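Posting for a labmate who doesn't have an account.
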Amino acid sequence: GGEILPTNESPGRIVTNGASRANRSSPFGNSGLVITVNPLTLDWPGASPMPPADDEANLALRALDFQDHWERLAFEATDRSYRVPAQRAPDYLAGRRSDGQLDTSYPLGGGWADVRSLIPKEVGAALAAALPMLEKKFAGFAGPQSLITAPETRASAPIRIVRDPITRQAVQTAQLYPVGEGAGYAGGIISAAVDGIKTADAVMARFAPPK
């Protein structure tokens, strides 16, 4: 059992993530499907010109603009209501809009939308290829009760807050400890947890009382 949750930090955007309570008692499940995109091929309406491949700083900033475009598009898709765009998996695969009652764990509710139009073409194609394969492995994964909601655009930050490898403090801000996905040091729950543990060890070692 799990829940889909809003994680946008700014108005006018929809960003999702998922969580599960300790006893897994929710009637819903949640599964995030992570699809990699190549920063050198990113394109979207109104995109800025592509910087050179070795211009890492501007490539990272352009990736943030890429995220922002799809998050704003999702917000517009449900009448600027902060309801999450949703579509039944079979309807997504068939290219038709869903209708009827929409039940979702998202606390702000959901609205029927053409999800494929709210994600990059390469992501939409990858999702369309993956869903039938997942259905074969896990019956019902892409069945009539399966909902696709979007977007989850923050699996890992495209910009890294640079830190000292020993103290693990940010190089430009003392006593700031960047950790996990948001700081650009992890790409999932397990790697973020490990990164946090290592930083906690460094903090405890620094402030441990003298023996």
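Reply:
Got it, the structure tokens are right above this. The longest strand covers residues 84-88.
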